[in-house]
Specification:
2 domains, single chain, three-stranded mixed sheet, 15% strand, 2-enoyl-CoA Hydratase, Chain A, domain 1, globular
Length: 266
């Protein structure tokens, strides 16, 4: 079976996770999907959702132990530790590929989103939730330091203090609390409503000039953690290089003619 099912509606791609937990093969599949999406400029937005009973329960620990157990828990000195380091870096690439995707990625979360599920959605650009969503940086409770991106990406989303509290306690928070913290931008009644909301956000993004959308994401990514002046210098260079486009002319013409613009990404 496909661990991640891919469909397309116009310029929007939807990736539907079909399994409740992340077995070893899931990480390779995630990286492959997003690497392919990054290479296709015709795809203007991506929705990530799950058809399982929850968005994700995180790492499939029995499957992980069956495949990587000796590397994760076995003894040994430098060679074995180096092997584990390499494995962790390999898994990190799975979700870094989401963050690096030029097209904005919108996550639609329902039910439990635990451990690796939070790592995954933290790499997305926008997150919406169903009212039954539960979020937890759960790794602390199973003797693992979260290592796939939550501790690095959440501070910019919900702030350092809230990140520390969630990661150090491993506690669950509901959708309302996640919304209050800024982890999700909106809360919908149920899974289907969250799916529809994510699709609507993706369609709204996809209707904008695609090169400009990608530019906005790149400028935001570059500016994170830098001074305002550094960010301003970067966006000035970006617009000096890429402002001139057919889409800019189309935007002006459509405004003058009082009609919807038709952006082509040229």
């Amino acid at each position: 079976m496909d661990l991640i099912r891919q469909t397309r509606d116009g310029d929007v791609v939807t990736l539907t996770i079909t399994v409740p937990t992340m077995a070893p093969a899931f990480f390779a599949e995630c990286e492959r999907r997003f690497t392919e999406l990054a290479a296709d400029a015709s795809r203007r937005a991506v929705v990530v959702r799950s058809s399982a009973r929850g968005f994700s329960y995180g790492l499939d620990l029995p499957a992980a132990m069956a495949q990587w157990g000796a590397t994760m828990t076995g003894g040994g000195l430098a060679a074995r530790r180096s092997e584990l380091h390499g494995l962790i870096r390999q898994l990190q690439r799975s979700f870094t590929a989401i963050a690096a995707c030029p097209a904005p990625v919108i996550a639609a979360v329902h039910g439990p989103c635990l451990g690796g599920g939070v790592d995954l959605i933290a790499a997305c650009d926008v997150r919406v939730a169903a009212a039954d969503a539960i979020f937890s940086v759960r790794e602390t409770r199973i003797a693992i330091v979260a290592d796939l991106g939550s501790l690095q990406r959440l501070p910019a989303i919900i702030g350092p203090a809230h990140t520390r509290e969630l990661a150090l306690t491993g506690r669950d928070i509901d959708a309302a609390r996640a919304h209050a913290l800024g982890l999700v931008t909106r809360v919908e009644a149920d899974r289907d409503a969250a799916w529809a909301a994510a699709a609507a956000v993706a369609a709204e993004i996809a209707a904008n000039p695609p090169l400009t959308v990608r530019g906005v994401k790149q400028v935001l990514d570059y500016s994170a953690g830098k001074s305002v002046d550094d960010g301003l210098a970067y966006v000035a260079a970006w617009n000096a290089a890429f402002l001139a486009s057919e889409d800019l002319g189309e935007a002006v013409a459509a405004f003058a003619q009082k009609r919807p613009p038709r952006f082509t990404g040229r």
